[in-house]
Design goal:
Structural class: alpha+beta
Strand content: 15-25%
Shape: rod-shaped
Strand order of the largest sheet: 1-2
Distance between the termini: 17 Å
Keywords: Coiled coil
Oligomer: single chain
Number of strands: 2
Helix content: 55-70%
Number of helices: 2
Order of helices and strands: EHHE
Length: 119
């Protein structure tokens, strides 16, 4: 039996392949920050209740409460805001890592048989 193909040659094809589907990861940072937002909301309610309670009162203790309330309130808000920003940065970093892993260089090596030419 005569073959229609003669010797084969090796060919190589390289390409970049995107595995999986792209995930925008929308809402990931929001999910992480939700407990912090809840805590900030409760803190704000507590502070407004405390301010309402001492409203119109005078004295050394009241002055000290107001001073501590303002001082600690700003520190807490700044710390929690920094945590929220860190969450967003970590989600962005995670997204970059996933995108890097999703994209892979693929090289295919195969033998291609040449058809026999008519004599």
């Amino acid at each position: 039996m005569t073959s229609l193909f003669s010797e084969s040659e090796t060919e190589i094809v390289s390409t970049t392949y995107m595995f999986l589907t792209q995930d925008e990861m929308k809402g990931k940072a929001g999910t992480l920050n939700q407990p912090i937002n809840d805590f900030l909301s409760l803190t704000k309610k507590f502070e407004s209740s405390l301010k309402e309670e001492i409203k119109g009162q005078k004295g050394l203790i009241v002055k000290k409460i107001k001073k501590e309330l303002e001082s600690n309130s700003e520190k807490r808000k700044a710390a929690l805001q920094m945590i929220k920003e860190e969450h967003t940065a970590k989600v962005d970093r995670y997204k970059m890592i996933i995108e890097d892993l999703r994209q892979q260089d693929v090289t295919l090596t195969y033998r291609k048989k040449k058809p026999v030419k008519d004599v």
